[in-house]
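Hi L., both proteins are below.
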Amino acid sequence: MTSATMSAVPATRLAEPQLGPWSRLAAYLVRRRVRITVAAFIIMMVEDVVTGVKPHSIFTPSDPKSLAGCLLIFAGLAIRSWSAGILKKTRELTTTGPYAVIRNPLYFGSFMIMSGFCMLIDDVENIFIVLGPIAGLYFLQVLHEERILSDLYGTRWSDYVRRVPRLFPRSLPKSPFATWEHSQWLGSREYRGLSATLLGMLALEFWRLH
């Protein structure tokens, strides 16, 4: 769940010296955001199993919540794959394809996937957790990345920010797939997220049947 443009920033630039205690805590949580997100979902699912919640079937398109959940998940996967195949890691500020629409398409896709799983599980407290503390955690990461990108790219970044919104699109890209590269997608290891998501959907079906 890495921000698109942030991949252009060397790892050594991510550290911020002389942070206060609250800033250090925020930095600690942000660095472990993926682990925290996975742990939160595991805890939510365990709680749902214990309380007898049964997810909607992924193979029942006539069920509105099943259809909506699957559409959100597959749309999120598509956005992440589209973004990963265009992203030029460690080489440049990527501003084409999905990055011409919003500045953080990978995060946007990830939250679509998480929202889709919440729709399938159909326990309202889960969506509040995803759109509350988990979203807050990722928003801190976005702000952190933007400060670094501003220092790194200067006016190029400022111009990009003026043209392109952070998360909610205002327009469509003119050439959506012109620079998409399969090798770039593979290099980003996006197939891991794809595989994990599909396995997660099958796990929900196994859970529903048992």
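That was the first. Here is the second:
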Amino acid sequence: MSDTMISRLAAGRYERAEARRVPKITRPGDRVLEFGSAIGYISCLLARQDDVLFVHGYDANPHLAAHATKVAAANGLSAKTRFETALISTDPDAPAFGDFHLHRNFWASSTRQSDGTVKTVRVPVRDANALIAETRPTLLVCDIEGGELDLFGNIDLSGVDRVMVELHQKVIGRKGMKDVFDCFSSRGFHYDQYRSAGAVVVFCHVDSDWRSDNAGRR
């Protein structure tokens, strides 16, 4: 990890927008599924919430699951967390393994090759819908560097109550942004203006018994 990243972590600037949303989006009994768990920073913030039962995190970077596991252990959160390496897909015809491009900055690694790519690795592909059926999450958290459009186009959100996703308009474009919102709208989710901030968007199911329209609730 670079000195710059260590400095950002120490100053609380790393993933600041997501970190500030964490206490606002959890509720008692939450089971969290996280796609793009990286070093486990947001994962551990979620697991620290008393009302969260567990956090299962997946990241395609094969170097990060072990690191996130150590971060969770150092914070006494091993019993509530689990981290695995995988590319996440909703394509029923996806291959068993896929290419993932490691960037010199871990947070910029992606399925899309770029000028900063230093190595391409083959990692296992996991079916997002199967993982949702298996873990039955109430809260889904997603930060996959522009892969959100492909993911949510064919996702089954049965049983999911809330979704926090970082959108990457620079990657998916304006049409892609509209398509993501359309995906959630067609599944009965609305944009929660009280808990969203810029690129970090929170969607809540309209039939939720959680009063997401109450800005002062937490």
